[in-house]
Amino acid sequence: MRNPVVERAPAKINLDLRILAREPDGYHSLVTTFQALELHDVLEAAPADEFSLEIDGVVDVGPADDNLVLRAARAYRDAVRRAPHVRFRLDKRIPAGAGLGGGSSDAAAALRAMNALAGDALPQEALRELGASIGSDVPFFLCGAARAHARGRGELLVPLPSPDSAEVVLVDPGFSISTRAAFGWWDEADAARPVSFADAAEPGAEASTLAELGRLGRNDFEPVVFARHPELPLIRRWLLEGGATHALLSGSGSCVYGIFAERASAAAAARALREAAPLTHVLQTRTAR
Ligand code: C5P
């Protein structure tokens, strides 16, 4: 590739995630707090005669044709006809189908790269709107903040300061969970209750440090996802017993994360988990700032 644009595509965890309601169009309104991680994919983009995507790296994400990178790039070119076709190369490190936002982050990186190659033809607001049409987590990855509160489907964003950082141990149980299926499980559980259990309570708007968010945070997917995958609450318990200050399912899963104050205790917990659960894939990273 000649002079490619290179974009980092970070992973995210949800420090808090509350589902408010199923909307008439089938989507769900929610409130969440996103936190970007240092773990990232790398996307290279160079002008070419046609769109193509080559995927390398340690994570298998299936056929390139179905990848959100190409979907995002084609959507961008539909909006900006003078944008070039692009040859992409993706170095994939973020586990897929794990609630870590990897596909959405790659799509956001593709939109940033397309915009750079098209001379910033789209203003940030229009880029975020385009991103929201590709995936609910894409606007967060375009907003440039390492930590943010989000509402709606995730597109109404308020960046938060992120002066503090911490060690994160990610446990990918070795299977993926479909976000669509997880929302369906939540609908079933909600419909079975006499009164909708959606509750708008959220960590106070003033909660912005990792310690506060960890103390107040919960994930509304946990009851319905844990009921179907009993190994996940076990993993969360191991993380807490291993010294995590808090541990939670990320997004709709399947990944469970633990936050640690010290690098050494995170490394020890990661080691113990690899031994106790050899089928899982355990990664150690940090929150981004
Ligand atoms: O937006 P994304 O492509 O990540 O969503 C995958 C699926 O999850 C959607 O097709 C929809 O069924 C469900 N979803 C939802 N409410 C949201 C986000 C996603 O019901 N806020």
Please tag this protein with its features.
binds cytidine-5'-monophosphate; 10 strands; 6-stranded mixed sheet; 289 residues; 4-stranded antiparallel sheet; globular; alpha+beta
Question: How would you describe this protein?
Answer:
With 289 residues, the chain is of the alpha+beta class. The chain has nine helices and ten strands. The protein has helices spanning 68-79, 102-117, 124-134, 138-143, 179-191, 210-216, 222-228, 231-241, 263-276; strands at 5-22, 28-48, 52-57, 85-92, 147-151, 156-159, 167-172, 246-249, 256-260, 281-286. The radius of gyration is 19 Å and the shape is globular. The relative contact order is 0.18. The structure holds cytidine-5'-monophosphate. The site of cytidine-5'-monophosphate has 9 residues, from strand 2 and helix 5.
What is the terminal separation in angstroms? 31 Å
Enumerate the distinct ligands.
Answer: cytidine-5'-monophosphate
Total helices: the number is 9
Rg estimate, integer Å:
19 Å
H/E order of the elements?
EEEHEHHHEEEHHHHEEHE
Helix content: 25-40%
Chain-averaged pLDDT:
93
Strand fraction equals 25-35%
Question: How would a textbook summarize the main sheet?
Answer: 6 strands, mixed
Q: Name the overall outline.
A: globular
Q: How many strand segments?
A: 10
Uncertain regions spanning at least 5 consecutive residues: none
Backbone structural class: alpha+beta
